[in-house]
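Handout for the seminar on molecular recognition.
Each group receives one record of this type.
Step one: identify the two inputs.
Step two: read the structure output and locate the region that could contact zinc ion.
Step three: write two sentences on what you found, then compare them with the reference statements printed after the record.
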Amino acid sequence: MINYEFIIGLEVHMQINTKSKVFCECSTQFGSEPNSNTCVICTSQPGTIPILNKKAVEAVIKTGLALNFNINKESTFARKQYFYPDSPKNYQITQANPPLCSKGKLSIVVEGKEKVINITRIHLEEDAGKLVHEIGSRKLDYSLIDLNRAGVGLMELVTEPEISSPEEAFEFLSELKSIVEYLGTSECNMEEGKMRCDVNVSIRPIEQKEYGIRVEIKNINSLSGVRDAIAYEIERQKEVLDSGGKLIQETRLWKAEEKMTKSMRSKEGALDYRYFPEPDLVPFELSDSFIEGLRKEIPELPKARRTRFIKDYGLTEYAASYLTSTKAIADYYEKALDYLEDKKVSSQLLANWISTELNAKFNTSKLSILESPVSCQNLAKLVSLILNGTISGKIAKTVFDEMFKNSSSPEKIIKEKELAQISDEVIIVKICEEAIFESSKAVAEFKSGKEKAIGAIIGLVMKKSKGQANPQLVNKILIEKLKK
Ligand code: ADP
Ligand code: MG
Ligand code: ZN
């Protein structure tokens, strides 16, 4: 058996979150009527000149600064030539060398171990349009071209080949996605193609110095897809080498439904793109004050926020990770916490409600936290009603279901549905007496020393009170009565 080492490098394209495209004023709105967001520049009419969108440059630099990159103050654009029907210019405006950002890094934690992944570069470029092969479910026997996406700004990030497992690749991308979402420089929505990832994979026997033959996998549109594609590809390459075969340098496609990669084209005769300096865009120079101004706009990033949540609010590692997984959830949590008086007592309970009940609702309703029918203030109220004993945790779930359905406040629901917890001793004593009277077997068992038998009597009291009797009080009163 040969022991192999796995070598993985990622190329990530992220759509820059600006209102207009990178070289014209057209909107970047996703899902618009085909070819409605176009003009003479992004449809490449002869004689038109691109004008650089400053906001796009700012977004790339901010992203670079958050990932510890060096910012190259003198930057240029280049033309990368190729023919593709969704790009009528027959070239792409991109950056060759230097890119806007060089030599960054991102640290990830896998199986409790920290590892720093070096990132080669981030550069700014324009996206291409889209070919449409079907309308609704109707397959066409011709293709249509939609140029709405042509000229939308992209940042392309390329890592060093330093990732060594499918899990590391998954962690790298999750962490990257989360940082970029915090920065707001890309929405990183993979379903809308706003974050796309190509994966390069090779393997080599542990003792071998030089790299093995690398395969590039395209067309992966989810983070778990990246993990599965790499795992599949490693196994495929092992099998080829173990059986004495040879790998070829090629581009493969990930087939998500079949969970396998398939060859698309050989990469032996690599394309020569004939890069040359873009004559329509002059080189530009960035000042230190411009860059430092952008550095000041960087918000607290996920890792720092996670650490602060654990330290300041006493949260578990799990809760802090979940809550800081997006800026929107973390903001929601802190806003809700602001409404609560004793933060020390309520912080973990509030966190649990967000990570379990609210999260489950988002999963089934497909709503995002920004569209939550339950406001931060109402969730905070619910938590304080549990803490002050007005309702039990169990009843709270019923109230919460209503809150999510109608956006109403918990007090209103509790009042309308008469769900408040019963803490009136006179009432509880009466129900307890009834329950004891009807549970002769459990009572006898309890008296003969089998203390667990009290569970059945508690259950009966809760049933009789529709779950509304204060459980601590029920427990206390039953024990008093049974020990008489
Ligand atoms: P190309 O433009 O052909 O894709 P690049 O030089 O831009 O080539 O490299 C692309 C990616 O391939 C980088 O992320 C790099 O880390 C990765 N890479 C380079 N060599 C290997 C290798 N032997 N195995 C796996 N990944 C590699
Ligand atoms: Mg590549
Ligand atoms: Zn345009």
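Reference statements: The mean pLDDT is 94. The chain is about 40% helix and 20% strand.
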